[in-house]
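Q: I have 505 residues here and want to know how they pack in 3D. Can you give me a structure?
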Amino acid sequence: MKKSYWILFLFIIAKFILQYSLINPEYELQRDEYLHLDQGYHLAWGYLSVPPVSSWLAWLIRILGGSVFWVKFFPALFGALTIFVVWKIIEELNGDLFAKLLASFGILFSVLLRLNMLFQPNSLEVLLWTLFFYILIKYINTEKIKWLYWGGVVFGIGVLNKYNIAFLALGFIPALLITEQRKILKNKHVYGAALLSLLIVSPNLFWQYNHGFPVVHHMKELSERQLVNVDRWDFLKSQALFFIGVAFVIIAGLYALLFYRSFKNFRFFFWGYVMTLAVFIFFKAKDYYAIGLYPVYIAFGAVYLGFIFQNGWKRIFRPICILHPVILFIPLYNISFPNKSPEFIASHPERYRKFGLLRWEDGKDHSLPQDFADMQGWKELAQKVDREYSKLSKNGNTLVLCDNYGQAGAINYYSKLGIRAVSFNADYINWFDLNKKYKNVIRVKDYSEAGNELMETSPYFEISEISGAVTNPYAREKGAAIFSFKNAKIDINGRLQKEIDEEKW
């Protein structure tokens, strides 16, 4: 093994240590993590909001015991592997050890620390984008056909992980067409690789077809409820902050792709960046959708800076460049991660507000960053539902019905009674167990929707009451009410089936 690989190994160890130390114990799992974990109980080739890869990982986490350690392990692993792939890209570009160190520090102390905190498709997405770029570089350098097919495999897996990878194709195909590397598209094996990708993706396409292409409905809903609040200028500002410690390296990489002779064959990467970013901006995409672009440009920039700082007095810039991402990370460490208690953040809002961290998807500022607020109140909810469930279930089967996937998933994860809560929201619409004859219902309602629940539902049960609510002042779910309905006077299962068919309660 090369001696430099021992240094790479230390970066990987540092990555894992950092990831496990960035979350204050007062925080729980995040809303989306619960949904992805529950998908591991319902393996399929597709889901209403995401493709299937995350469910396979969730199944593996469940087999490993389902602890928080394993939930956090895989995002950290994908982040560590991203550093490894960038290291290999630099080797392919004939970069020296300085370039590898600069890129590794830049990626280690970056937005990926935050992205890799959560069990979501995003961490694997960044790794797959970076791996695809590495394969593309390998093909250009060697012109070996096998790399085209490996690219097809990675792109296919990328689609099965997150449809966002389609933006990569929308940006880079035109970039190839306007440069000399358009010759790649004349190679018949490119289309063989595309067919291989299609073959890999086809089970998910059949699933989408059989379910009426829910991805179209999901994208429309996303556009109407969330992307409408996206500010294009904020999107651009975020791009500068994601890898702020090595922003100068990215700029150097883009410059080198245009003017550095050794990168002549890779000039289309410059236009690929410009066009992909333009597509994101046009569609008002969320800022983090573009994170997968940057690791390869950090590699290009690090190699170029290694070249211009290799001789004479210019070598003094090498340690300065390497220390830059480390030094800039220190203030980010204090605001970008849930390593401070909710009380501390709420009492020091200005340091968070000036970076836009308190703005949620609704376009308004709140006391905590949205991701942090989504990591509060879940255990409280599960404990209170467990308490009521243990009472009602002595009187027959009890259904736990929630307003949203976060509530249902959190109850399922933290419940000590093996509750399988459901919802008419997200994929839970397909996970109702109607083989049980339900006699009681525990209804969890969002604060804004709770007002009329007793009046509307109590006539159908002998006993109805409010049994509790989420009281955590920092939780996004604060005020969510828990209603208890005992001894149904109606056929609950029939009512459920009707509501499932109509996709509403």
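Q: Anything worth noting?
A: DSSP finds 23 helices and five strands in the chain. Residues 68-92 form the longest helix (25 residues).
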